[in-house]
Write a structure and sequence with these properties.
alpha/beta, Glutaredoxin, 5 helices
């Protein structure tokens, strides 16, 4: 069982430095079915409040959990990189892939963010020994 956890700064907030978090979230939305077929689970992590996460998920049709970590306890435990803008501390964009409870791969920095879901799918195929190249 694999999990792809990506950190989204503050999608839809207009926070300087958070650009790209909506495309990153939507890239995982767009490959959600393939992740499920591969036995992987995606979820997002943000310092945003729960109600902001719910509104974002509804607006962008996000089919997976978005976890709220406003006190940054999870981020502190994992030593996730942060940035501060407009007096708000948020996580920088990154993706962790865990297998059997251990972090197996880290994508940081994530660029371009709209290809992150596809990059995770490709990594999962490589890790499974499957050739996922087109044609």
């Amino acid at each position: 069982m694999s999990s792809a956890a990506f950190r989204k700064p503050t999608a839809g907030s207009g926070l300087d430095g958070a650009r790209g978090c909506t495309p990153q979230s939507c890239s995982f939305r767009d490959v959600h079915g393939e992740l499920t077929e591969l036995g992987a689970t995606a979820f997002g992590l943000s310092t945003q409040a729960h109600d902001e996460q719910v509104a974002f998920a509804e607006r962008e049709h996000i089919p997976f959990l978005l976890l709220s970590d406003p006190d940054r306890a999870v981020g502190a435990a994992l030593r996730l990189p942060t940035f501060e803008a407009d007096g708000i501390v948020a996580y920088k964009r990154l993706t962790l892939i865990a297998r059997d409870g251990l972090i197996a791969h880290v994508r940081y920095p994530v660029f371009p963010p709209d290809e992150d879901g596809d990059q995770v799918i490709a990594w999962l195929h490589r890790a499974a020994g499957v050739d996922a190249s087109p044609g």
